[in-house]
Amino acid sequence: MFGRQNQFNGLQCVLVDELNDAIEASVLEADYEIVAPKIKFGCIYEITRLHSRSSKQTYKVVPHTVQLYFNGKTTFKQIPERPPHIPEHRFYLVDCSELLSRVDKVEILTGYWIAKLQDVMGHITSVQPLEDRMVNKERLETKCDVHLQNTSSSLSCKMEEAPLT
């Protein structure tokens, strides 16, 4: 994860359980060197000695109300056998045809007022250069246009998305 001025800012994870529920977990930059070697993508762990708090609404990647925080004292005990009922990935897919009608709603795309992110499957056909734009006639933000072509039809959508800064 990168923070302001593209500086490294820790680690973000999405954890999924056997009920297909997802929760976001974070490791702060100060704890990254200690925590990162303890975990591997796709493995299943019993995790203890962690903290939780209410999820921030900005850039929320899963609908869970709580976010987990791991630090140097967090323990990860790997469970050797992977139960078949725990999915490896979790997505919140939205059909491309629904995008334009949902652009102004709080739950779509990344940005300052986001309550929930959703995923779209398609081909990125072009990415325009970054430019400063006025948002809600209140604040100036750096944005770029991303053109996404729906893979299931010839429909083409235009999305505006603020980069992580």
Pairing-aware structural class of the strands and helices? mainly beta
Strand runs, count: 10
Total separate domains: 2
Oligomer: single chain
Radius of gyration: 18 Å
Shape: extended
Strand order of the largest sheet: 1-2-5-4
Task: Enumerate the spans where pLDDT stays under 50 for 5 or more consecutive residues.
Answer: 1-6, 106-117, 161-165
Main sheet specs:
4 strands, mixed
- What is the residue-averaged pLDDT? 71
Number of helices: 2
Query: Roughly what fraction of the amino acids lie in strands?
Result: 35-45%
Q: How would you describe the overall organization of this protein?
A:
This protein folds into two domains: 4-79, no CATH class; 96-161, no CATH class. 7% of the residues are buried. A hairpin with a 5-residue loop joins strand 9 (139-150) and strand 10 (156-161). By secondary structure, the chain is mainly beta. The strands form three sheets. It has a four-stranded mixed beta sheet with strand order 1-2-5-4. Strands 7, 8, 9 and 10 form a four-stranded antiparallel beta sheet that branches. A two-stranded antiparallel ribbon has the order 3-6. It contains two helices and ten strands; from the N terminus they run ββαββββαββββ. It is extended and about 45 Å long. It has helices at residues 29-35, 96-102, and strands at residues 11-16, 22-27, 44-48, 51-54, 66-70, 75-79, 122-127, 131-135, 139-150, 156-161.
